[in-house]
Every structure is written in C-alpha cells, then in structure tokens.
Design goal:
globular, two-stranded antiparallel ribbon, 10 helices, 9 strands
C-alpha cells in the first residue's frame, strides 16, 4: 500500500476573516459547513479563481454566497429549497467546501510548488476521503448516501483531476482500507455540476495568464489554455472513465450551469465571455444558462434562481431514486419471506406422522 506524501500546504494562507468558518474547518483543505448525523446526500463545493487574484483565503465560501449578501447559500438556502412544500420524508444534506490555493498570481516569496496539480489532487484525496484523524471528512463512505460534487471554473477542472486520481489509485493500491474507501467514494458519486467551467480552455483567462510574470503564475492556469494539451488529456481520460461504453449509462451524470452575460472586473476582465458555450458543453448531460456573469453564476438572487434550483432538483431526484430502489428491494425481500413461509406451511400440513391415520372431517 502506498503512503501519501505531504510535502507542502496547498491550501491558501489564512487571514483574520477566516474566523467566519474556522470552527467548521476539518483539515487543511476541507470545511464541514453543515453537519448532519445521518445525511441523505453529501454535497461538496469547489471554488475556482477568486475575484481577488492574489487572495484565495475566503474563496471557499465567498464564491457561493447569495447575491448581495455574505450568506453561504448551500447552508442557508439549499436545505430550505429541498424541503419546501415536502409532504414525504425530508432531505437532510451534509455540506462541505474545499479550499486550495487558486490564486493566479503567487507571491515570489511563496513560490508556485504548492499548485502542482498532481500533488494537489493527492492532498485533496487524503483530506477529503482518506484522512484517519478524528475530525475526518470521510466523503462517500455512507451506505446509499449519494455524493454530488460542485465546482466553479477551475474548481470544475480540479474535480475532474480528483476523480481521475482516485480511479488511478484503485489500480495501484493493494487490497485494504484505503482501496475500500476510494471504491466507496466512486460508487456513491452520482452527479458533477460544473459552474462556468471552460473544459477546452478560456481565451479570456489565457489573456489574463499572459499578463502574470512566469515566476508568479500558478501552474494550474495551464489547464485554462485554449485547446491545451494537458486539458485535452484530462478530458479524454474523464470521458473514458465516465462512459467506458458509449451506449451504456454513464457512471455519473454531468451538468453545466453557464453564464449568459459577459464579465467585467476591474483590471481583469473587460466585457469578456470567460466561458463560451462550446467549451462549457463538453461531455455534459444537461446544460443550463443563468442570467448572470462568470462570478454571479454561483450567486443566486432568490430561492428559485436557476443557479441553485437545478442543483437542488438533482439532489431530490437522486435521493428519491435511491429511496425507490431500497423500497423495491425491501418489498422483494418481504415477498420472498412470505413465499418461504407459505412453502413451510404447506409442507407442514401435508406431513403425516408415522403410525397416525387421518380420518374424515366431521
């Protein structure tokens, strides 16, 4: 069994404003924003490039705030939507947020080693799935508890890298606890949501990348290069894993929530189409657009904004599908028990004890 390395911290440096969710921090990379004892689903959020290119310390929650507020909608709005008008069993979700150093411009005194994509995936797997410590994330380890991964731009690409890393580790590891955990994670993975993720690169981000000195430029930005070779390799492997046979049902579903408006951000974007439809649609089962720009696409304005309801609807569908399957399995077991009982009863009624005759009924 291979030991996981941990040469550096790939999480962003903390600031005093991190105290908002400091108590929810499980480890270097994971915050458990909403914990429930017996969740019906686990939803994990991966932020992308921060609006402040040199500070990603709060991107894990600021990316997913309700428009015009500092409310983290996966905790304040999504659970309410899931149970709105519900007359049957409720929907309790566990909500986690991943943090990592997604800064485009890395200070020279820190260096870019912490943004190596392979080692970042390795650390995320360790902290999100395998960590044996008491305060453990342990995502994907529940029985019939679906996992939904949600990523914004670079976060969506990181999700792909994470899934491929786990799949690769399954072939490399010997039988044991780690392999069992990774297998459970992939088995429970049902959906991936990509919010404005440029799978084939982004001309706007590539232009931004070229403005950053090479010594300060995050290596992760290479995955945003238009028609880049590295991302082409990731896309091909991801599609091959998700759909091993083209005519068969995919291992999990993919969804795209893309921005309909161009993005303007002082000194960064000037009316740019950061994620064109063509690059957002790659290997996507269901595609949606939201009347928002590249950053607002993650910030619903109200309870029934499409940027949140599409995710919420999928959670409801996935959980209800599992409930229906479990109910059908239980009904089948009940019928099998009845048949077995009936067979035993019939055999008992037909049995005659030795030396005893059965007389006519009176």
């Amino acid at each position: 069994m291979r030991a996981f390395r941990h040469f550096w911290s790939s999480s962003p440096p903390r600031t005093s404003s991190d105290n908002k969710y400091e108590e929810e921090r499980l480890n270097d990379h994971v915050y458990e924003i909403q914990a429930v004892e017996s969740p019906h689903a686990e939803v994990v959020f991966f932020h992308g490039l921060p609006m402040d290119l040199s500070d990603a310390s709060n991107a894990f929650w600021k990316t997913w705030t309700q428009w015009g507020t500092d409310k983290f909608w996966p905790k304040t709005m999504l659970p309410v939507y899931l149970n709105e008008g519900n007359q049957g069993p409720g929907f309790d979700i566990r909500v986690l947020a991943v943090t990592y150093d997604s800064r485009s411009n890395i200070p020279s005194d820190i260096g870019v080693a912490g943004t190596n994509d392979y080692l970042l995936s390795e650390n995320l797997v360790k902290n999100l799935i395998l960590n044996p410590k008491a305060r453990v994330a342990g995502v994907g380890q529940g029985y019939d508890v679906p996992v939904i991964l949600v990523g914004h731009d670079l976060g969506g690409i990181l999700i792909k890298q994470l899934i491929l890393y786990v799949e690769n580790e399954l072939h490399a590891l010997d039988e044991g606890e780690e392999k069992e955990k990774l297998t459970k994670f992939l088995t429970n993975l049902t959906s991936v949501f990509f919010y404005s993720t440029p799978h084939n690169g982004s001309a706007a981000i590539e232009k931004l990348m070229n403005k950053i000195p090479a010594d300060n430029r995050s290596p992760l930005l290479t995955f945003m290069t238009v028609l880049g070779k590295e991302m082409a390799r990731v896309n091909a492997r991801f599609t091959e894993y998700r759909r091993p046979m083209l005519n068969e049902r995919p291992r999990f579903k993919t969804f795209a929530i893309n921005a309909a408006f161009r993005t303007t951000l002082d000194g960064i974007f000037d009316k740019e189409e950061v994620c064109p439809e063509g690059t957002a649609r790659l290997d996507i089962d269901q595609y949606y657009t939201v009347q928002a720009n590249h950053y607002q696409v993650c910030q619903p304005k109200a309870m029934h904004s499409n940027s949140m309801t599409n995710l919420g609807t999928n959670i409801i569908e996935v959980v209800n599908e599992i409930r229906s399957r479990v109910a059908a399995e239980q009904e089948l077991e009940r019928l099998e028990r009845l048949r077995a009982f009936g067979k035993e009863l019939a055999e008992s009624n037909n049995h005659t004890e030795p030396g005893r005759e059965t007389g006519p009924l009176r």
